[in-house]
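1st attempt posting a full record on here, be nice pls
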Amino acid sequence: MVTKVVMPRLSLTMKEGTVIQWFKKEGDLVKKGDPLVEVLSEKVTYDVEAPASGVLRKVLETEGADVVVAGTLGIITEPGEPLPDIEAAVALPPQRIEEATLPPKEETARKVRERILASPAAKRLAKEHDIDLASVKSSDPKGRIVEDDVRRYLAESAALAPHVREVIPLAGIRKTTAERVSSSARTAPHSTVTMEADMSNAVKLHEVKQVSYTGILVKAVAQALEEHRNLNSTLDGERIIIYEDINIGVAVAAENGLFVPVVHNANKKSLIQVTSALKELVEKVRDGRLAKEDVSGGTFTITNLGMYGVDMFIPIINPPEAAILGVGKTTEKPVVIDGKMRIRPMVCLSLSYDHRIVDGAPAAKFLQKVKQILESELEDV
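the predicted structure (as tokens):
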């Protein structure tokens, strides 16, 4: 029996994953349930288990390949069993497999491109530099493109372009981040409201209770969401889904990208528990130990750039959530209280929200509630 190993869907928004490494090689015996291949998606690595026992007959997607959800990664058969109908397709190189699945119009266009005459060296050099050979002028009377033609094209292009210091592939976590923020900006009509909050109460809690400022923000937002549930939601087609659980994601920057680990049921945790959970999640980010459950199920996100000296900014919603809170740096400022000038630690809060789900007034009321909790209502409960 032939069994396909496919790219799993790890979240509702996942479209593709990246192959990180194979734990088995072609010809190895595998048992159902054994870790077979490690993939990356939604900034989380995940071990795909063997769906059946047998022999790993063919690895179709190698390390570094981006594969769509349900795309075939490899083939498992029983020992000694030949590959029936799909054997010819498996034996074809990746480019031919791709051509075999293209729609008629795209296939025709591909064949036209293949008619370009070029030497193997020219093709190899063009591929290395991501050059469309149709753009390269041939010096051969018969129109055949040779390596020197490609090098001349590169030199001419370099003379017109700024010098490149480094080329970084858009792959893995960086690619996932790019796709998610692009999708968010493209599909969700963003609107933003800002408000300043007095952090005097937060500073006091931080010093007396030894809780983190991020923990204080998470707890304040979680409490505010209990009263303003429409911000704890998502848009699913023509339905607005209001979540019961309040799971707060916190954007954490690491050397290899941006991660959003989630504090689940933050409204039901004390400040001490929230701070402890955040500390553990941040350590997992730094050590590369985040599990699928650590970044799944978020209903609202907080992103803080205050530690970089940023006063305020407009954050991009983390899809499929309805809103995100941006936090700037806390600054000592003069404020008027009861007709008298006082110096207070003030912070700018920026709430970006999906205007398809939330209107301006409810968004402002929610942000006002967060401010109120931070300034007077937050306790270690």
